[in-house]
Design goal:
By secondary structure, this protein is of the alpha+beta class. It contains nine helices and 13 strands. The protein has two domains: about 130 residues, Gcn5-related N-acetyltransferase (GNAT) (Aminopeptidase); about 140 residues, Aminopeptidase. Keywords: Ribonucleoprotein, Ribosomal protein.
Length: about 300
Amino acid sequence: MSITMRLVTPDSLGEVVEAVAGWQQTGGPVQLHPGDLGWNWSLGGPELAEAVRVWTRDEQILAVGMVDDDTGLIRMGIAPSAGDDAAFAARILADLSDPGQGVPPGAVEARFGAAFRDLLHRNGWTADEPWTPLSRELTEPVADYGLRVEVIDAYRIRDRIVQDRVAVQRAMFTNSRFTLERWRTMAAAPPYRRARCLVGYDGGGDAVATVTVWSAGEGRPGLLEPLGVHRDHRGHGYGRAITMAAAAALREMGSSSATVCTPSSNIGAVATYVSAGFQRLPDVTDFRRPELTVAVTSTGA
């Protein structure tokens, strides 16, 4: 059976998104999600396609990597059927270790795939910054969150709400480069057909918080990416409220659970998610490339 790594085109990104959606499992690790691809689609389809690599066996997509040029990190998603395949893992690592392939990352986010993770360990890749995954089951209704929330989906796009959504995003993060044009690009892309942006308003009508929620399909985990509160309106419980609103939206969309992952050093964010009913899961780390090149060893054929 032939294992190959290939590039993707803007036209084939939809196929990649559907493959990644099918790998999401309730109770499983928070690995690369369609929402991650959808959020990065805001930069444009051609730009996203340049950042994505897929690994196939007999033309079936079994792994996807999305390169983050800003951090030198490649975020991986691996099909459950290939998680324990040592030969497949060895091929991924060989490609990631080969400068000729054009994707030698400084670090790898690999939260699923026992064979691949074991191979990274044994080849000298070391633990990087810890992240905290969190999850909330959505079998029961979400309690009232006490915040007026406006929803923007692929079919309800209101200019004023969109402008508020962009403005809050820019006020959430220092040096944010998010723009109205980027939002429109994201909203026009296939993943947003299963996504919603929520904007929360305080009693005076000011936009104070926002989140984008991404479904992977009925009965699969949904993702919060990104979420935050306007810097001028922090300390009033709006983070907890918009988090609960996000969970309620995903439940309405048929998601089995709501998931998110944040740097463990962001103690305030972790506490906010826990206060909104999310369960903190064991911390995970990315894998940092060893300084010296080492031979790839494998237990597989």
